[in-house]
Design a protein that fits this description.
heterodimer, A: 301 residues, mainly alpha, MetI-like fold, 0% strand, elongated, B: 245 residues, alpha/beta, Rossmann fold, 6-stranded mixed sheet, membrane (chain A)
Chain lengths: 301, 245
């Protein structure tokens, strides 16, 4: 297939989200680098407490100031990024693995198998995500692992839904028929043809969701049900600093900005990916059409 | 190679294909013609037991296997390896994220063949395709190349029967001629049984020995291609012929 240069009017709206997407991607790379290199970048040791330097405003020694026990805020934000990104990556990996596996099987198989899988999925979807996470976080010991488990439990059904609808449309494609005509057994067809060709919308969704997971994790921490002291985690930092907002704004503002910026970057990248994959081929466009209802219905936690 | 008696395919109580008799021997080419929805593609799928959710009765033997009675494993073994299906939209029939060579190698392995590379090279040669094409993705080849690749796949797997569902209707005229040329030559060289489904009577007249005309799921006329196309007995066949440009 050859693509001719599109007229300006058509290409402008394509270019715009792409620039945003590139911006988001750069931002994400920076955040990830900052988190990974935290031990080298951080100006102070993670848990160094200096009671005499409590609540210092931003200065040359403490760019983002110090918190209520005299810890460097910049240092904790850098290390906090590790926690937040680890939570996001774990939640999405677990959700996508479980959700997409069930989804492609349901979508390809159809019939009673699809009904069983989708009804179970519906049950999980019936619980408000944040509430179910809350309940789980209360029952289990609060902590990073609990946050991951709690969010993943409420997150995977979306991937099942999304990939089931995509897989159902893939299952009617001629190349799937062709594979069946070649005598390829169903599990192999799912693995080799349905799964790889269903992944595009999943990738987009993963990117769009990363911001949401970070926000949810921050919310759980904020409510005291997530990461616990002395773990550095953005939501936790906001929660601990909230009473100081009017007097010592930096304690809460910088971690808040870190959450905002990271969530924003992932969303922008996701939107850009969606746009980019949308124009590349007719196939992707069709896939998106089936994907949209699933993602549009989704309430943002 | 293909032997059909009293084949009836019903979906939800409605008969969509009713074929009292259809035989294709080695080296023979039979064409099923008719308009869209006349049941010709359904008949083809029924020959490989691929009519899911349909009620199929009668007797169907393909390569000596009783398709309606055989267990799924047995059916999977003949699909592709002994009786290959060539579909209408050649590119859409190739999994977009898989290189053609990978696809062919997997197909060979699936049918327990370990002579991958030489078989692939021979098959590509048989359909006059550059083996370099095996390194390409489906969207990087033309429709004619994709269709010849589909035929090469059948050849590599050693198919004795090729079932072709509108194999040329998605291609432009010059490319059609290429594909038909390949099919016609292979049929002679390899003694292939060729069952062709098409609405293109011009194509049919150049390649088929015998013709079945289907309308609304029923066979309205059948016989030697030369006779059916020259002196059609059924008004519907005459209609089809008059529709020719």
């Amino acid at each position: 297939m050859t693509h001719h240069a599109p007229p300006l009017r058509r290409s402008l709206p394509r270019l715009l989200p792409d620039r945003f997407a590139a911006f988001g991607a750069v931002l994400i790379v920076l955040v990830v680098l900052a988190a990974v290199l935290a031990p080298w970048l951080a100006p102070y040791p993670l848990d160094e407490v200096r009671p005499l330097e409590r609540l210092r405003p931003p200065s040359a020694e403490h760019w983002f100031g110090t918190d209520q026990v005299g810890r460097d805020v910049l240092t904790r934000i850098l290390y906090g990024g590790r926690t937040s990104l680890f939570i996001a990556a774990s939640v999405l990996a677990v959700s996508a693995l479980a959700g997409v596996t069930l989804g492609v099987v349901a979508g390809y198989a159809g019939g009673w198998l699809r009904d069983v899988i989708m009804r179970v999925t519906d049950i999980f979807l019936a619980f408000p995500a944040l509430l179910l996470s809350l309940a789980l976080a209360v029952v289990l010991q609060p902590g990073v692992n609990t946050v991951i488990l709690a969010i993943a439990v409420t997150w995977w059904p979306w991937y099942t839904r999304l990939s089931a609808s995509v897989a159902a449309s893939i299952a009617t494609r001629p190349y799937v028929d062709a594979a069946r005509c070649l005598g390829v057994p169903a599990p192999l067809i799912i693995l080799r043809h349905v799964l790889p060709n269903s992944l595009t919308p999943v990738l987009v969704q993963l990117s769009l969701d990363a911001g949401g997971v970070i926000l949810t994790a921050a919310a759980l921490s904020y409510l005291g049900l997530g990461a616990q002291e002395p773990t550095a985690e953005w939501g936790l930092m906001v929660q601990q600093g909230q009473t100081l907002f009017t007097t010592n704004w930096w304690v809460v503002t910088f971690p808040g900005l870190a959450i905002l910026l990271t969530a924003f970057a992932f969303n922008v990248l996701g939107e850009g990916l969606r746009g980019a994959l949308d124009i590349r081929s007719g196939g992707a466009r069709q896939e998106r059409a089936t994907q949209e209802p699933a993602s549009a219905e989704r309430p943002r936690p | 190679m293909i032997e059909v008696r009293d084949l009836k395919v019903r979906y939800a109580g409605r008969t969509v294909a009713d074929v009292p008799e259809l035989d294709v021997g080695a080296g023979e080419c039979v064409a099923i013609v008719g308009e869209s929805g006349s049941g010709k593609s359904t008949t083809l799928l029924a020959l490989l037991g691929l009519t899911e959710g349909a009620e199929v009765s009668g007797r169907v033997r393909v390569c000596g296997v009783d398709v309606l009675e055989a267990p799924p494993r047995e059916l999977r073994r003949i699909r592709g390896a002994r009786a290959a299906l060539v579909l209408q939209s050649p590119q859409a029939a190739l999994s977009p994220a898989t290189r053609l060579g990978v696809l062919m190698r997997r197909a060979l392995r699936l049918h327990g063949r370990d002579d991958g590379e030489p078989a692939m090279a021979l098959a590509m040669e048989a359909v006059l395709l550059d083996p370099a094409i095996l390194r390409r993705y489906p969207h990087e080849v033309s429709g004619g190349q994709a269709q010849r690749f589909a035929i090469a796949l059948a050849i590599a797997l050693g198919a004795e029967v090729i079932l072709a569902d509108e194999p040329t209707s998605a291609l432009d005229v010059t490319v059609q001629a290429e594909v038909v040329g390949v099919l016609r030559r292979l049929r002679v060289e390899r003694d292939l049984a060729l069952l062709l489904v098409s609405h293109d009577l011009a194509l049919v007249s150049t390649i088929a020995d015998r013709v079945l005309v289907m309308k609304d799921g029923a066979v309205v006329e059948s016989g030697p291609a030369a006779r059916v196309l020259a002196e059609p007995a059924h008004p519907y066949t005459r209609e089809l012929l008059e529709a020719l440009p």
